[in-house]
Fold these 3 entries.
Entry 1:
Amino acid sequence: MTALERRLAVLEAKDAVRDCLTRYMDLCDVPGPLESADEIGLLFTADATWEGVGPEYAGKFGIARGRAEVVALVSQYLPPAEHFVRNAHLLGSEQIRVEGDDTRGRWIMQQLSLHTDGTAELLCARLEIDFEIERLPHPTARMSRFRTQRMFATPLPTEAMAHLH
């Protein structure tokens, strides 16, 4: 592989990672485009892990092992489950590293949520994710290890959100 081909492979891997994580966040938004939990499963490897870390998330989420457990865990928070009325995810502080076959990323996720119990919150979490890249026929990323750690959370006033219920 030439230097130019290696550079192109790195850029394509980074784009595939962004596409994968952006799709995941989109599917986790409420209301959102999610039609089937299988759509979430397609974004993870068969042996993926999804883990809550740190004092706030280790006990709340624990660790899901394998695609089926990951989908079951995430689905607890998405329609038809009654958890969120509205939920939006924003990503920033992106760092993606591609070194040979190892592809890892870190982001800060901001989440704005209106819950079915009438409460609302803003939270920030650090995401650390490992990906597997399928290079042919076109680069596609799947998450193999997903870790989330809460960094900040605060309640939001709900008076102006009554029309969203």
Entry 2:
Amino acid sequence: MYQQYLNQAVRTLQNLTSDELKDLLNDDDKLDERVDQAVQSLESEKDLLLGENRSLAESNLEKEPKVIELRSRVNDLSEQGRALATSVRQKSDDLKTKSGSTNPDTVLALLQTAAAESEEESEQIVKQFLDNEIAIDVYLDKFMSSRRTMHSRKLKAEKMTELVRSGLSGTASSQQQP
């Protein structure tokens, strides 16, 4: 730590002539003056470093509440992330379990049943309208919604039928190949 100051003092002494060194050695006041200059330089450097250190410490203390708050937030978010990851894993496992046990023919039958129920519901809405049980604006809203649902379900049922047939024909052809 003090090595640089010692090196600096040695350099200043190296620049002196033999006569100047002898004068310095014989004159205690001059020697004390040089030592005092070196000590004063060290003291001023020390004061500067203490000031910088104090300034940094005050700055750190000012930031401490924010750091504590952010650290707490990171911990909360980490905990939420772990909880969400666990939830995703559980739901993924449930989905794998349920999808593995569901027969495509069962799903197709359920889709076809749901489409038929939607069609019956829309016919019931028409009957209510014809019997003047509901107003035209209510009829239009209910009927359009019901028909949209019915067509969507029928379309899904048709697509599922194609998938089941292609799956069955793909399975049959793969079983026929030796």
Entry 3:
Amino acid sequence: MRHSIGALVLSAVLGLTGCNSDNDNGTQAAAESYTLVVMPDTQKYSRYNPERYNAQTQWIADNYKQQNIVFTAHLGDVVDLPDSEQEWLNARAAMSILEANPATPYSILAGNHDVLAYRQSGVDINSNFDSDRTLAAEPFLKHFPASLQQNNFASFQGTDATGFNSYHLFKGGEREYLLLALDWRTSAASIAWAQSVLDAHPETPTILTTHQLLNVADDGNSAIFTDNGAMLWDKLIKDNDQIFLTFNGHHHGEAKMVAKNRYGRDVVMILVDYQSGFWGGNGMLQLVSFDEANKRLQFRSFSPWVAAIPEAERQPQDVLQRWEFEQPLDFEKRFAKLNQEVETEGPGKLEGTLAYWIFDAEHKLTSTDPAKVQFMDLSGRGNTLSLKAKAGSSGTQEQLFELLGEAPGFGHATGAARFKGGNTLGGYYLSSQAPTLVSADGQAGVLAQYTIEMIVRLAPEWQASENAWGAVFAHKPSQSQVCEHHKLDCGGGDPSLALTASSLKEFQWISTSSNGVGPSNWSWEVDRNYWYHVAIVNDGQYATMYVDNSRVMRTAEAEQHGLVSIPGGEWMVGASSWDGEVADLFRGDIAEIRIVDRVLPESDWLNAK
């Protein structure tokens, strides 16, 4: 045995008092940063080794000033056996160290090991929601009642009706944060309660903690949603822009996911749980430094217990720290205009941009359903594109649509959307009820001028018999429908606006203008498996097509005064239409599409160097 009981106690005492070495006491936080401490599952400590639990909280109590610790969040599974009074007493003793000082506030929540259903035969623990329990009998509520934190910490703001869910407000630097501590199985009523808290704090950056949200994938590294986590994402996280950070335990290991919410903003999601490791985690905490000056979060797992053991006496399993990484976070930018459509910054976002889509993984919105594919609109106008199957398609989504990691040699995409449909199998396309095109005098569905750009290539497998007239980009209403809407003397079954690939592998630009349907613009015959930049520039009189910056021969043959569309009419990427119905499908790859309400110089085009 490595240590005698006396040596263990001595180590614990050393952990309580801290030490002089930076390496043994945690890296000191930068003067302008502040720290959130995350306590993963403590169940093994409560049952087998409370000294490690005590070492964790005592280190926080001793170092909160030096480390600028502003809050501590427990992730549940406080105990191992919910009907063991001694385990609860051990947990209470450890957490009471923080309660002794109003400057060391904490949140705590129930994991599956903390509710009586865990030990009750005939009860499905996974279906035992907070509202299903006999509240008066639950030991978690007995030992960690709302009154305990209410009497100790100004950060505590209240609980839901069950007492299993709470929320807290604390300051980090000059910024106020909200923290939700949610039960491991939140009922619909509890989700509604959490939403009411968020509604009351629409501009407060929010951290969500719960016991189960992410799991570790089979590769041992990647993070994946659990069923419960998918529910929380769909019903609470993705639509509330102020939630920027989540933590959970339960599943053994560590993993990170950076998800995109409905506004296209990052939500950093962390799984951390060391209970299956040496001595149930060996006292490991996670320290999160909020470094506003350098626009980053710094994550590091650190064990106060190991820090108290002299280096010469540590065994190989006594790991002082692990899983150290940084996550970029521009605090001002991320927390500005919360719950509003977000405009991006960068070379692709210009004044007058009405819609801008990049079809790569970075700009794909996160979904808990693998079949649900959506791409954000970087213009900030909310023109989200969603993947749809053409009616009657016999092929699967996996067969007919793919997101590539391969990028063109120009533009801003790091990948592309691959459309693999055709006349035989059918296929998939992306759809939006936008963009909203508004003229300078406020007339809806009218653009006096525009520059529309697409970065596209035909697939090596492209065949005229299967893929001719499929559109890269199209407005679904027909020419006749748009002309009738705008009371113009024109018509036709073609889409009112589209870039198609003809039966001769030519790019064709079809458009309907305020002076009617004009002649199409045509490129030369293009190659398969070659990336092209296509720009259509309308100066208010003529529409001119450029392919790879070269003006094509058959273009601007008659006046075309801007373009007209039907407000609320469907726009499609990867499909054309006939008489207002989805028709021919595009076969190839699309990396970017951008619509700007003015004439752009070549120096501002997507392929500009």
